[in-house]
Design brief:
about 375 residues; alpha/beta; Rossmann fold; four-stranded antiparallel sheet; 17 strands
Length: about 375
């Protein structure tokens, strides 16, 4: 492991969050969290131990065609619920302290633990925004054949306070969802194939590695460029890799050397992929530039023909930025509503002009003007 990305909490005095940006801190999660300053993190993604209460027994597949071992790692073992609850209260208390007032936290779990964690979080004053169901397209079968196949996990998305002004990139998620409002059920596959990190023997490096598609939805929906995302149970670094991909910053905490080595290599290989979604272009409101302003800036001219998207002439532009259709002069909104036989309509998305033989939306002229002003 290199000192470039990985730092040892025992040998480092963390007095400022800037010291650990885009770093993996080797150490115990609770101890490291206690060293952070108050109100310094924008978003937290926590994938804590689930306390799955697995035994050392090797499970047989229901059809008898092989063996399967679930999550039986030492880090998932606790004496009883009291010990597990005390652990969760400790790390959640620190997460609440270091989260900014308008920050949010995501915690993932399954039926073994998510109800206990939700109870603790509500008692601490976190405000639940959504419980997201991650519906798995390729879940692990129930090996004993005695229960329904457990085909989902639950994410609790919470703000620090009830009145926090948390980030939610609604328009981005709607666009990614084909123009429809995104829902609280996410259908995604589990981590497998080339995405799954392996050890030197070809076995899974981490038994509960989360898929990149899951972290992509979390990061694109609830963070802004350059936000600091903390993962207190960093594992093999999915959070760090996707944060880097979309132009966010991360802080990871992990104590296992093998996980850290895998995460470090993975993050170094991750390339940035900045586009209109990661940059939140869809969240920006249209520039407040009027039709009259476009005329004064010579983007439009009086008497110019205004067209619909099919190229049909609707009317000509008047000196006050209205549309004259030969019968009356109306605003772009009332004029477009008249054509569409509606009570109202957004004229910016209706009218076009012809420029160099091509149709150009008048709405695009606003963005064009705003960009020119920004560059001046």
């Amino acid at each position: 492991m290199s000192k470039e990305m990985v730092i040892d909490s025992i040998q480092t005095n963390i007095s400022c969050i800037d010291q650990v940006i885009n770093k993996i801190i080797k150490g115990d999660s609770i101890d490291v969290l206690k060293s952070f300053e108050d109100n310094c993190i924008d978003v937290i993604f926590a994938d804590p131990p689930y306390f799955m209460q697995s035994t050392d027994k090797v499970l047989q597949r229901a059809d008898g065609t092989g063996e399967f071992r679930g999550c039986d790692d030492d880090w998932d073992k606790y004496k009883d619920y009291a010990e597990y609850d005390a652990f969760c209260m400790s790390w959640l208390r620190e997460c609440k302290r270091i989260l900014k007032k308008n920050g949010s936290i995501w915690v993932i779990g399954s039926f073994q633990n998510i109800y206990r964690i939700g109870y603790i979080m509500q008692n601490m004053g976190f405000w639940i925004l959504n419980d997201i169901v991650w519906s798995k397209t390729n879940p692990t079968p129930n090996m004993s054949g005695t229960r329904f196949c457990n085909a989902h996990e639950t994410l609790l998305w919470c703000s620090k306070y009830k009145n926090s002004k948390f980030t939610f990139n609604y328009k981005t998620m709607k666009t990614l969802n084909g123009g429809k409002q995104d829902k609280s059920v996410w259908t995604l596959g589990i981590c497998q194939g080339s995405e799954r990190l392996k050890d030197g023997n070809g076995n899974k490096l981490h038994s509960t590695q989360k898929p990149e598609d899951l972290l992509s939805k979390i990061i694109l929906s609830s963070t802004k460029p350059n936000d600091i995302i903390l993962d207190p149970f960093f594992g093999t670094g999915t959070t760090g890799a996707i944060a880097k991909k979309y132009g966010r910053r991360f802080v990871g905490i992990e104590r296992d050397d093998n996980y850290i080595a895998g995460a470090e290599k993975r993050i170094k290989q991750q390339q940035e992929h900045l586009d209109m979604f990661s940059n939140l272009d869809f969240e920006v409101k249209p520039p407040r530039i009027s039709m009259s302003s476009l005329i004064s800036l010579n983007k439009l001219y009086i008497g110019q023909e205004l067209l619909d998207k099919a190229g049909n002439v609707i009317g000509v532009l008047t000196d006050n930025g209205y549309v004259n259709d030969g019968e009356e002069s109306l605003s772009i909104h009332k004029s477009s509503a008249k054509v569409l036989k509606l009570s109202n309509n957004n004229g910016w998305n209706f009218f076009y002009i012809s420029r160099d033989g091509k149709l150009v939306s008048i709405n695009d002229l606003r963005y064009e003007t705003a960009k020119e002003k920004h560059n001046d």
